[in-house]
Amino acid sequence: MKRHLKRAAPYFAAFLALLLVEILIGRFASGWIRSYAGDVLVLPLLFCLIRIFTNCLPRTLPLWLFALGCFTELLQLLRFSEILGFAEGSLPAVILGTRADWADILCYALGTLLTMLVLRLKGDFHD
Fold first, then answer.
1. What is this structure's pTM?
2. What is the DSSP string of 72-109?
3. Cα distance between the two ends of the chain
4. For a Cys staple, 25 with which of 12, 19, 20, 29, CB 3.0–4.6 Å?
5. Do the beta carbons of residue 62 and residue 112 sit within 8 Å?
């Protein structure tokens, strides 16, 4: 258990830092920072959240998360939030999103590359 906590601690700290940045972006940022920076950081945020609980798939997890981001954009394109009846601005609508944008997919790709680069630099790029 101690070993798991020692391994998970940096991911927990990174998750909290990224979550704080995401909240600050959502609350105070505007322009390109609000439009794109949050989407770039969401992939590293999710990666850190998952790595808190498991040591599996460090190399392929960023790619799975990128696929999840693309799937989310597809759901937005299909107006899934509207189909489910989520009110605009409600928490489920905000989490799922309501507007598909190809630029978001590019941001997810950048976030994936950023995550993989940090893993490579950290020497944690293995399965």
1. 0.85
2. HHHHHHTTHHHHTTPPTTSHHHHHH-S---HHHHHHHH
3. 21
4. 29
5. yes
